[in-house]
Amino acid sequence: MQNIIEETLQSGESIRAAGSKYLLVRDATHTLTLRVDTREPVEIKKNDVVLIEGFDMVELANHHAGAITIQYQITDMPINTQSDAVSVSGAVTVDEINKPIVVSGIQNTVAVRLGEAVEVANFPEIQKVEVTNGSEVQKVEVTNHVELQKVEVSNFSELQLDSKPTTVNGVGALTIVNGQATIAANAQRKSITIQAGESNQGNLLIAGFIRLSPDGVATIPASNALVVTGTNGDTFTVGEII
């Protein structure tokens, strides 16, 4: 097995290594380029193990702008390497692996005896306490309470319920002329529903403050007349709830 070789390559610099079976990159501050004979170059890095058997020329090159330092080894046996996050100046080198440790026996288990149960033989008996001089509960009787008075009301007015059914009426379609249209008043009306025409050119303005976009719907609790302003030719339909 060849010793570990350390080299520092400047940008564009390369070195050639003697042929063998395996190339082990022990450590490297950056990746480097490997060229073998006429094959396409490949990029290798720290801890890579490359099979180079059968090649006459093995070349390592620095393709970076700055210098790099590498430690490599040419060997006939593959050795798996592991990254130890140590710089090149303080890298750990493994030259051989000791024989594994054989465990021939395990110590016998240690028996642990639980403590003996504790018996209390002289614990005092529970004493019964009897009270003989307590005051008796006194009975209180109230004889002068005020009786509840019954009040009868016979002249109250009966509640009047509005049993009149709700009716929905369609008033019809109105068209904006000269910039406005008027919805007539109806004293019996509870609310009114207005729906703008889908093809209207602009928004409608109801009572000067309610803005209604095309195809929009608005319900207003009003029985008075309402003025609707908008673009000439725009339409809207009206329905009443009575």
Describe the protein in words.
This protein is mostly beta strands and 242 residues long. Among the domains are: 5-84, Jelly Rolls, CATH 2.60.120; 168-241, Jelly Rolls. It is 0% helix and 32% strand. The chain contains no helices and 16 strands. The strands form four sheets. The protein has a four-stranded antiparallel beta sheet, with no helix packed on it. A four-stranded antiparallel beta sheet has the order 2-7-4-5, with no helix packed on it. Strand 4 (32-36) and strand 5 form a beta hairpin. The protein is flat and about 125 Å long. The chain starts with a strand and ends with a strand. The model is unreliable at 83-94 (pLDDT under 50).
In short:
The protein is an all-beta fold and 242 residues long. It has strands spanning 5-9, 14-17, 22-28, 32-36, 42-44, 49-51, 58-61, 68-75, 168-175, 180-183, 191-196, 204-206, 210-212, 217-220, 226-229, 235-241.
Keywords:
flat; 242 residues; 16 strands; Jelly Rolls; 4-stranded antiparallel sheet; mainly beta; single chain
Quickly give the structural class.
mainly beta
What are the secondary-structure elements, in order, as H or E? Answer: EEEEEEEEEEEEEEEE
Could you state the CATH homologous superfamily of the domain at 5-84?
Answer: Jelly Rolls
The largest pleated sheet is described as:
4 strands, antiparallel
Using DSSP, what is the number of strands?
A: 16
* Percent in helix: under 10%
Q: Calculate the terminal CA-CA distance, rounded to whole Å.
A: 108 Å
| CATH architectural arrangement of the domain at 5-84 | Sandwich
Strand content: 25-35%
Which term fits the overall shape?
flat
Number of helices: 0
